[in-house]
Amino acid sequence: QVQLVESGGGLVQPGGSLRLSCAVSGSIFSPNTMGWYRRAPGNQRELVAFITRDGRTNYADSVKGRFTISRDNAKNTVALQMNSLKPEDTAVYYCNANIRYNDYWGQGTQVTVSS
């Protein structure tokens, strides 16, 4: 059974940084794409960033230049470095892995940006 376990959320002041991590287990196949989504209160879930197995990345316009996604293919992990955080980044962040055309999700980790 494929499982995604996230870590690294929390409370941070505006302008601060957080690093989210996600580990994929239970699959003999390496994920094609891995990414991060988020859902703010009252909003739909939206893509934050994703990265392909060969390292190509894509970011939401709202986070370009502030967030960096990376992955370790040997360990099946993906990370999201978030800098210059803003209150509007407050949301539950979900890790996603696409494995053989199936999407798997983590349980979500809360990120709160507030003074």
Model description:
By secondary structure, the protein is mainly beta. The chain is 0% helix and 55% strand. It has strands spanning 3-7, 10-12, 18-25, 33-39, 46-52, 57-59, 67-72, 77-82, 91-99, 102-105, 109-113. The strands form 2 sheets. Strands 2, 4, 5, 6, 9, 10 and 11 form a 7-stranded mixed β-sheet that branches. Strands 1-3-8-7 form a 4-stranded antiparallel β-sheet, with no helix packed on it. A hairpin with a 4-residue loop joins strand 7 (67-72) and strand 8 (77-82). The N and C termini lie far apart (40 Å). The mean pLDDT is 95.
Write the layout of secondary structure elements.
Elements: E1 3-7, E2 10-12, E3 18-25, E4 33-39, E5 46-52, E6 57-59, E7 67-72, E8 77-82, E9 91-99, E10 102-105, E11 109-113
Parallel strand pairs: 2-11
Antiparallel strand pairs: 1-3, 3-8, 4-5, 4-9, 5-6, 7-8, 9-10, 9-11
The residue ranges in which pLDDT falls below 50 over 5 or more consecutive positions are none
How would the global form be characterised? globular
* Tally of helical runs: 0
User: C-alpha Rg, in Å?
Assistant: 13 Å
Taking all residues together, what is the mean pLDDT? 95
Outline the biggest β-sheet.
Answer: 7 strands, mixed
Beta content: over 45%
Encode the helix/strand succession as letters: EEEEEEEEEEE
In helices, the fraction of residues equals under 10%
Number of strand segments: 11
- Give the N-to-C terminal Cα separation: 40 Å
Broad structural category: mainly beta
